[in-house]
């Protein structure tokens, strides 16, 4: 997945480059800077001494020494002074400069901490938004896998409005439904024990399975004479439907897989193999990228062998977003991440 938010210690990331939230001297400090220098060993400081510092919003690169990454890109974030002193533009410039250097050094994988959100006091939610905006913009034009590495769960407090709406929706759908299921189980238990005098009946399957995908007998194809004949009537595959929808929406393949936050290589695999069955998260990411309706999403998922279910919180989040016309994959993934659920894409 080209952009991923992960919870980790950045010094443990085995990527081509990690980004350091440094200060203008580049001679080390506390926070993530201190952790990176400790893990890289004294040779990192020696090389930093040769760089003559770095201006706020700019970036410089060194080797990674004892770190599991090849390079460290040092950037200097702005000190938060209330937001009226060009902080946003300077923070955006940190991401731009660091990504430009990563590209120049042919890095394929890069990990960022949330720059400026510690000692420098930038509000985390706003800093995360700047990070996501800048990285997404860069990824529209470039092939790279970029991680935003956060230390604490609160760091991901950014998809505020959508997050609250989704939580409320989950409460409505998931909690209510599980409460219903619980009641149903208790009711069935009572029915089992009840005398068969016609006053009690087991609930019909349809009553309890409101949200399951059930194929009515009438919707089943008529029986065919033999297996060969049936195999000769295979439906459009996932790959075929995906390519058809891309054409119908009038977008390019690249626009589609970038919007889906899916790696180009994976997209090509799907494209070149009509029988390819992607993971459910990938299939859903394409549904979001293509802005499919609920019905189309269900159809696309089914072609890959999946269904949406109210027993699954990830599915409820996706359903909520689709029903409300929110097809911003990055925002949806932020919500999934905050809820400790699996993000979409690859
Ligand atoms: N891995 C990932 N994230 C981390 C780690 C880690 N090991 N350690 C801290 N964070 P900060 P700044 C998070 O203060 O605000 C230094 O002294 C942390 O929770 O490291 O840009 C420099 O020398 C926070 O969200 O950087 C400068 O003087 C984020 O990294 C000054 O601090 C950034 O916190 C720079 O301040």
Topology (SSEs and partners):
Blueprint: E1 3-7, E2 17-22, H1 31-40, H2 42-49, E3 59-63, E4 71-76, H3 87-104, E5 109-113, H4 124-141, E6 145-150, H5 160-193, H6 205-208, H7 227-231, H8 238-249, H9 253-259, H10 264-272, H11 280-289, H12 294-303, H13 313-323, H14 329-338
Parallel strand pairs: 1-6, 2-4, 2-5, 5-6
Antiparallel strand pairs: 3-4
Helix pairs in contact: 3-4, 5-13, 9-11, 11-12
Residues 9-11, 21-23, 29-33, 35, 77, 113-120, 149, 151, 155 line the site of ligand AR6.
Description:
The protein folds into two domains: 3-155, 3-Layer(aba) Sandwich (Leucine Aminopeptidase, subunit E, domain 1); 161-190 and 236-338, no CATH class. α3 (87-104) packs parallel to α4 (124-141), α9 packs across α11 and α11 (280-289) runs antiparallel to α12 (294-303). By secondary structure, it is an alpha/beta fold. The chain has helices at 31-40, 42-49, 87-104, 124-141, 160-193, 205-208, 227-231, 238-249, 253-259, 264-272, 280-289, 294-303, 313-323, 329-338, and strands at 3-7, 17-22, 59-63, 71-76, 109-113, 145-150. The longest helix is centred in the middle third of the chain and has 34 residues, at 160-193. A six-stranded mixed sheet has the order 1-6-5-2-4-3, with helices on both faces. Mean pLDDT is 83; it is low at 190-219. Helices cover 48% and strands 10% of the residues. Ligand AR6 is lined by residues 9-11, 21-23, 29-33, 35, 77, 113-120, 149, 151, 155.
Which key terms come to mind for this protein?
346 residues; 2 domains; elongated; binds ligand AR6
């Amino acid at each position: 997945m080209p952009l991923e938010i992960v919870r980790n210690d950045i010094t443990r990331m085995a990527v081509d480059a990690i980004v350091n939230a440094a200060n203008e001297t580049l001679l080390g400090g506390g926070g993530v800077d201190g952790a990176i220098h400790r893990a890289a060993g004294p040779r990192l400081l020696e090389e930093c001494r040769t760089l003559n510092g770095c201006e706020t919003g700019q970036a410089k690169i060194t080797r990674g020494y004892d770190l599991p990454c090849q390079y460290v890109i040092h950037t200097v974030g702005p000190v938060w002074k209330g937001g009226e002193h060009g902080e946003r533009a300077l923070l955006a410039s940190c991401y731009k400069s660091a990504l430009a250097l990563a590209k120049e050094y042919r890095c394929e994988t890069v990990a960022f901490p949330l720059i400026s959100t510690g000692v420098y006091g930038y509000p985390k939610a706003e800093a995360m938004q700047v990070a996501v905006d800048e990285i997404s913009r860069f990824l529209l034009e470039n092939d790279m896998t970029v991680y935003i590495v956060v230390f604490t769960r609160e760091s991901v407090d950014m998809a505020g409005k959508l997050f609250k709406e989704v939580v409320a929706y989950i409460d409505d759908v998931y909690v209510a439904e599980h409460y219903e299921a619980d009641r149903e189980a208790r009711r069935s238990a009572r029915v089992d024990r009840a005398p068969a005098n016609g006053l009690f009946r087991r609930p019909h399957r349809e009553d309890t399975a409101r949200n399951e995908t059930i194929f009515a007998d009438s919707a089943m194809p008529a029986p065919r004479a033999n297996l060969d004949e049936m195999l000769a009537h295979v439906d459009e595959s996932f790959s075929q439907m995906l390519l058809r929808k891309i054409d119908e929406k009038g977008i390019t393949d690249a626009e589609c897989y970038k919007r889906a936050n899916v790696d180009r290589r994976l997209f090509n695999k799907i494209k070149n193999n009509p029988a390819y069955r992607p993971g459910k998260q990938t299939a859903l990411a394409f549904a979001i990228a293509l802005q499919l309706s609920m019905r189309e999403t269900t159809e696309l998922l089914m072609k890959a062998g999946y269904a949406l279910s109210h027993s699954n919180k990830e599915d409820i989040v996706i359903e909520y977003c689709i029903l409300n016309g929110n097809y911003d994959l990055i925002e949806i993934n932020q919500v999934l991440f905050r809820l400790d659920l699996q993000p979409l894409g690859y």
